[in-house]
Structure formats: structure tokens, C-alpha cells
Amino acid sequence: MINFAYIALGLAVYFMVRTVFSDEEHRSAGKALGNYRTSASDAGNMILKYARPFFSRYLVPIVEDLKIDDTRKIMKKKIASAGLTDVLTPDELYSFKLSLIIGFPVFLIFMKIAWEVDVPLYMFPIMMIIGYFYPDKLWLSSVITRRQEDVRRAMPFVVDLLALSTEAGLDFMGAIGKVVEKAKPSPLIQELETLLKEIKIGASRAEAMRSMAWRIDIMEVNSFVAVLISADEMGASIGKILRQQSEQIRHQRFIRAEKAGAKATQMILIPMMLFIMPAIFIIIFGPFILGMNAEGDPTDM
After folding, report:
1. Residue 257 — very low, low, confident or very high, per pLDDT cuts 50/70/90?
2. Which of 88, 103, 211, 290 is the most buried (most CB within 10 A)?
């Protein structure tokens, strides 16, 4: 019965929201999510898409009046790191949390009344906790982690392209523009494009690069930006700096791969001790023990 309740909860969430919200609201939600359709959809934005009309209309005006500036700063950082600045605002994210905290228990009550499903009482606080943690701790954190890994994988290739472009005679900004134009879309290319836009509207190169490092928030980009800013201020050759940074990034990537391999070896020991070793002992000592029991069985005499 409990398993049926879980399935019914999911179906109720989906079909009720489709029924309640009009087609116009669906189009506006889809349009709001359209600027980042690929990454947001990959991260599982279905709940956000269907909950947006509700919390945008009823909860965001309330949240905007709350004095939660510190929470807004934290959420703004997470949204920027996830690359969803065009999709969500801090107030919308906080409203999203509140809508799930309220919405999940409401659907449990609906299931209990409409379908006479025996929903245990402990499911209500559990679903409220899930609603509280899902938007930023689960969904948004998974988007950030995936995006940061994509940036780490793309960095050596992009830095190589920047080095080749500067060595071919382009200045640094021209090299970034050429890479953005020619390279395949990725989170790092998106950040470089944002960097160029910030410079065009009046930000200095140092400010734009620091802003990019703040959004991505990984060690490789932070050190890369710090070196480039120092080289720019000292008038050093950007091409040589980029080549050195490319080699350093590849070396750091190799070290991370070695650490991951060593960690995987250690993690294999636990299932080996639990599952493989007992089977080996049974194969080796099982016939011997059965033979000993057969020899000592008095019924054979």
C-alpha cells in the first residue's frame, strides 16, 4: 500500500498541476526556462517548470518583503554557479522551496481524501523536509557539480585554443571572441561569452574575469584568473602565460585522476570483503567441510 502511495503521489503531482495551470501559464513558464533549456532540463527542472506559475503569483510577492538578505546572497551565488541567472532569481528560488514545503503535504492530503490511500503520518514531515532541501541542496547542487566538472574537462582544450590564438597575433580579448565563436557550446564557453558581454557594457577585464571566477567557483579557474590578472597588470606575454597554464591544468587533471583511481581501489575493498571473499571461502572450504561431516555422520556406519 505504501509503494502505491508513492506512485500515486507522483501521478497526482503531474496531472493536477497540468489541470490547474492554464496553457498560457505553461507557455510563460516554458519561455522563462527557454534560455537554459538544455542544462535545466538535464538537471530535472520539471517540478520547477510546473510550480513556477504558482509561486511566482502567490509567494514571490511575499518573499520580496522578507528581510533575508544573507539568504539571498547565498542563493544568488548558487544560482550563478549553476548558470541559471536567466532562469531564477533568489526570491524565486526561496519561493520554490516554500511551494514544495506546502505542496508535498497538500498532495498527500489529496491522495488520502480523493483516493482513500492510507498515507502514514510520518510521510508528512518527510515530504516537507524533502521539499525544503530539494531546490538548492539537491537539484541546484547537482547542476553546480555537473557544470563545474564540465568546466574542468573543457579548460585544457579552451586554454590551448586561447594560447594558439594569441600566438597567432590576436590580443587576449580577440582570442576569447574567436574561441567563443568557433568552439562548441559548453558552460566554460558560456562563461567566456558572459565575460565579453560584461566588458562591452563597461566592466574592466580584471573585474569581468573575477566575476567569472566567482560564478564558476573552482580552484583551477580561480588560479587561472589570478595569473592572467597579474600578467595583464605587469605587461607580461599572455601567450606564454596561457601555454604554461595549459600544462599546469593538464598536470592537475592527471593528479586528480590518480587520486580518483586510488580512492576507487580502496572503495572496492569493502564489497570484495562482503561478497567476493565469502564466496571464495565457500568454494575452497565448502567441499572439505561437507566431507568431514559425511565422515563423522553415524548414520553411514
Report:
1. confident
2. 88
Residue 86 is given by DSSP the state T
User: Does residue 66 sit in helix, strand or coil?
Assistant: coil
The CA-based angle 96-98-99, given to 5 degrees, is 65
Residue 204 gets which letter from DSSP?
A: -
- Backbone dihedral region of 235: left (phi > 0), alpha (psi from -120 to 50 degrees) or beta? left
Q: What is the dihedral of CA 63, 64, 69, 74, to 10 degrees?
A: 70
Residue 245 · residue 227 · CB < 8 Å: yes
Residue appearing with cell numbers 562591452: 200
Neighbours of 238 (CB within 10 A): 19
Selection from 23, 87, 246, 216 nearest residue 155 by Cα: 246
Q: Where are the domains of the chain?
A: 2-120, 149-253
The DSSP secondary-structure symbol of 34 reads G
pTM of full prediction above 0.85: no
Q: What is the pLDDT of residues 176-199, one digit of tens each?
A: 999 999 999 999 999 999 999 999
Backbone angles phi, psi at 70, to 5 degrees: -65, -40
Topology of 149-253 in CATH?
Answer: Receptor-associated Protein (1.20.81)
| % of the chain beyond a pLDDT of 70 | 83
Count other Cβ atoms within 10 Å, centred on residue 63. 21
E-state strands within 218-295: none
CA distances from 77 to 70, 107, 211, 216 (A): 11, 31, 11, 10
